[in-house]
Design a protein that fits this description.
mainly beta; 4-stranded antiparallel β-sheet; 431 residues; Immunoglobulin-like; 6-stranded antiparallel β-sheet; single chain
């Protein structure tokens, strides 16, 4: 989330903060704040400007003094993450079964060979496994041994470890292990049961007796795999959200003039509604802000008055709207007020957020009361009213900074909708 940082400010509190693109377009009200700066204040950029490289900051103080500053933004985009995906590859690894052997070698003695062999299954192995058997007894006898081994073991560790010994002449014992069945040897062995097996081999020795043959240890080690495969995981690029702006139409019927007049008076306002022959106070920006906040927040817009109407504002030019009129950036498209929406004469007022007009002013609005949306007459709005702004804080329309567009005190926007459709369309934006 991009932030606006304000580290110092001079002026008169409270302040109104706005932000737009570098051309002053898409101006958006950010916040109203009071007090001194420092301490530093932080505010979120609106979604439309989150990825902008530069933005235009506007601050208005309580004296309506406006300050503009163009600032550059540092946009930090999400970085694709490199995810290590370890691949564990099962490998068929010969397993050396530890066989502790106590071999007294001073005489021809049967060898007591406890064989603690855990044999889960008989697995055919087509691998020749040369086994280097360290011993402290030099011997010239090559003993071929047919030993069934269960060596197909998926494991994450290679066990090809050569253990150095103190013998000068290791005995090389070739082992032939391609078997599909358990081939009995001269040593009867019961699975998981130590067996005293007489040895029929006379082993001459040249070393002192009672030599304990070192027992090879089973040390779990890592196989050449897992292979770490660095894969670039694509990170979804955030898609900018299209923020639609709207122009809002307030229809104040003359039949309800006393209702809105009494309400505005009860709120302490100096503006009692257009149908009572009053316009908002344009000489005092503070009072204008109060008057228009009360006016827009009148509960009658959802009860005894027509509901507030809205019309979309395109941000780019091109194409035709639903009534066949050309669309232009920041001019609201053609809006229809159907016949009979309000009975009798009423006052029509457009209220548009400053960002909706791209920071410009809706200087003129086209309209017709003859029911033909393609035959519109241009009307210029009252400048003493639209030169003021107000910051709305209620719930009738979105919170933001707005301008008011009407022909007051001229009467073209005093219209009777009883017998005809009315059409409006944004006409001219001035910057």
């Amino acid at each position: 989330m991009a932030l606006i940082e304000i580290s110092s400010i001079t002026g008169t509190s409270p302040y109104q903060l706005y932000v737009s693109d570098i051309y002053g377009n898409n101006e958006t009200f950010i916040a109203s704040f009071s007090g001194t700066v420092p301490p530093t204040r932080y505010f979120n950029l609106p979604p439309l400007l989150q990825t902008a490289q530069s933005v235009l900051i506007k601050i208005i103080d309580a004296n309506n003094c406006q300050t503009f500053q163009l600032v550059s933004c540092k946009v930090i985009l999400p970085t694709p993450s490199i995810t290590s995906s370890p691949t564990v590859t099962p490998s068929i690894t010969p397993t050396n079964t530890p066989t502790p052997t106590n071999t007294p070698t001073n005489s021809v003695t049967p060898t007591i060979t406890p064989t603690n062999t855990r044999t889960p299954s008989v697995t055919p192995t087509n691998t020749k496994t040369p086994t280097v058997t360290p011993t402290n007894t030099p011997t010239n006898t090559t003993t071929p041994t047919n030993t069934p081994t269960n060596t197909e073991t998926p494991t994450n560790t290679p066990s090809n470890t050569v253990t150095p010994t103190n013998t000068k002449t290791p005995t090389v014992t070739p082992t032939n292990t391609p078997t599909n069945t358990t081939t009995p040897t001269n040593t009867p062995t019961n699975t998981e049961t130590p067996t005293n097996t007489p040895s029929n081999t006379v082993t001459p020795t040249n070393t002192p007796s009672n030599t304990r043959t070192p027992q090879p240890s089973v040390t779990p080690t890592k196989t050449p795999t897992p292979t770490q495969t660095s894969s670039v995981t694509p990170t979804p690029t955030p898609t900018p959200t299209t923020v639609f702006m709207y122009a809002y139409l307030f229809i104040e019927p003359f039949s309800g003039s006393s209702d809105i007049g009494n309400y505005m008076a009860s709120q302490g306002s100096e503006f009692y509604g257009f149908t009572n022959g009053f316009g908002p106070n344009t000489a005092s920006p503070t009072q204008f802000n109060i008057d228009m906040n009360k006016y827009v927040s009148y509960v009658g817009w959802t009860t005894n008055f027509p509901a507030v109407r809205s019309q979309i504002i395109p941000s780019v030019s091109g194409g035709l709207d639903e009534y066949g009129n050309a669309k232009f950036a920041f001019d609201f498209t053609t809006h229809e007020v159907p016949i009979g929406t309000v009975q009798g004469p009423a006052w029509y007022t457009w209220i548009i957020m400053t960002g909706g007009t791209g920071g410009g002013i809706q200087q003129s609005i086209a309209y017709t009361t003859d029911g033909n949306p393609n035959s519109l007459t241009t009307l210029y709005m009252d400048s003493t009213i639209y030169n003021n702004t107000f910051t709305y804080t209620g719930t009738t329309i979105p919170v933001g900074t707005y301008r008011v567009y009407t022909t007051w005190a001229s009467t073209p926007f005093r219209i009777d909708n009883s017998m005809t459709n009315i059409f409006f369309k944004g006409d001219t934006i001035s910057f």
